[in-house]
Design brief:
This protein is α/β, with parallel strands linked by helices and 274 residues long. Helices cover 53% and strands 14% of the residues. The chain has an eight-stranded mixed sheet with strand order 3-2-1-4-5-6-7-8, sandwiched between helices.
Length: 274
């Protein structure tokens, strides 16, 4: 990696990406972080040896890739302030702000900008993230490769064919960590109900979740489930109970609700910033 990258916004996700990039051999001298929080900038400079600045325009103007890592409510203000940048097809903007359409970002930036929208999730903070990416028509093949490589520094990434599919990504991987946290929470409570000390139930449930997820990374989950589910055994009884209670429908209903809300939030945010 040898890009000049400017991060506008220096919060947790930006910090994780900077750390991931440097671990993947991106030169720290090629990274600049911009933020209004001087203390946070100093922390990043001390930790990673990167350049820091409070001048978004100058820093973005010198970058090959501009990472827009601010809150969605600030995107219009930040992008409008960058609209005086000269049009440069070789410059890529990557937004990790949920719900802000690429067309709005491009308009605020003054038009004719290569833009990738990204939906990361919180495990990216541990470099175990899952991100969905969508590119507008101005993004070249090389820029798509660069965007994917950046996001893969903190986990895995997939491309979606339509920007609207990022709302489905939100429902599955964006919100998904909370679903697993909730299941672990319920499994712990079930262990207590069955007579285990809370600490023991928590330790067993969390280690089991980590082990199962690790096994599922490289194997078919249906096959894995079948291997654990012995005929007339304990696991079969639990799976049958899940099926009788329509766990599949509960999951479909929950992800559909998350998807609807993602659409609503995007519409509300667009209307607020119109």
């Amino acid at each position: 990696m040898s890009w000049e990258i400017c991060f506008i916004g220096a919060g947790n996700m930006a910090t994780s990406l900077i750390g991931g990039l440097i671990a993947k051999q991106q030169e720290s001298a090629g990274i600049t972080a911009c933020d209004i929080n001087a203390e946070q900038l100093q922390t990043l400079r001390d930790r990673f040896g990167i350049a820091v600045s409070e001048d978004n325009l100058a820093s973005a103007g010198a970058a090959d890739i501009v990472m827009l890592a601010v809150k969605p409510q600030l995107m219009r203000e930040v992008c409008t302030a960058l609209s005086s940048l000269p049009s440069n097809p070789a410059q890529l903007f990557i937004s990790i702000a949920a719900g802000v359409p690429a067309a709005a970002i491009e308009g605020w930036l003054g038009g004719e900008r290569a833009i990738v929208r990204c939906m990361p999730n919180t495990p990216a903070l541990l470099r175990l993230g899952a991100s969905g990416l969508a590119a507008n028509s101005k993004v070249s093949a090389g820029q798509k490769d660069a965007a994917a490589e950046i996001m893969q520094s903190v986990g895995v990434s997939i491309w979606v064919d339509r920007e609207s599919d990022l709302d489905a990504v939100t429902a599955i991987s964006g919100s998904g960590p909370a679903y697993f946290f909730y299941f672990i929470e319920l499994l712990e409570a079930a262990g207590v109900e069955l007579g285990l000390p809370r600490e023991s139930a928590a330790r067993l449930a969390r280690q089991t979740a980590m082990g199962a997820a690790s096994m599922a990374l490289d194997e078919d989950v249906v096959t894995l489930r079948q291997q654990v589910t012995s005929r007339k055994g304990t696991t079969e009884q639990a799976i049958l109970s899940f099926q009788q209670d329509r766990l599949d429908q509960l999951v479909n209903n929950a992800t559909a609700a998350a998807h609807r809300r993602a659409l609503e939030l995007a519409r509300e945010l667009t209307e607020e910033q119109a």
